[in-house]
Amino acid sequence: MRQAMNLALRAAREDEVPVGAVLVKDGQLVAEGWNRPIGSCDPTAHAEIQALRAGAKNLGNYRLLDTTLYVTLEPCAMCAGAIIHSRVKRVVFGAYDSKGGSAGSVFEILGTDKLNHKVAFSGGVLEQECGNLLSEFFRIKRNKPTGRG
User: Is the pTM of this model over 0.85?
Assistant: First the structure.
């Protein structure tokens, strides 16, 4: 999770929402990602998607069996769908997302038994620290002059 937090800080330095993700298999880092939708002009470029894409490429398989995805924020519905389709075994996240989380906060996508793959998940790992990254980023954004007259 600490590496995911470092990636979230990288996203913040790029003026992206500070979310980072790392994909691990057999205790080894397989891939990583950080939010890049603004800089890449790609609405799907969330940290989780970036890590899943890199992981599939690095492993040579779109199915990411027996992997764990660590992410600083509870995945959204889009990311939860991608996680399920890629067959990630487990997701560990930091902060809960009361406005769009898909591991129980708003939706229950990851753990549902209505889909063809059920993902184990746990949240609240370094929750305060992960949440502080987001709170501080948006506090600065709110207080930044826009240059509009």
Answer: yes
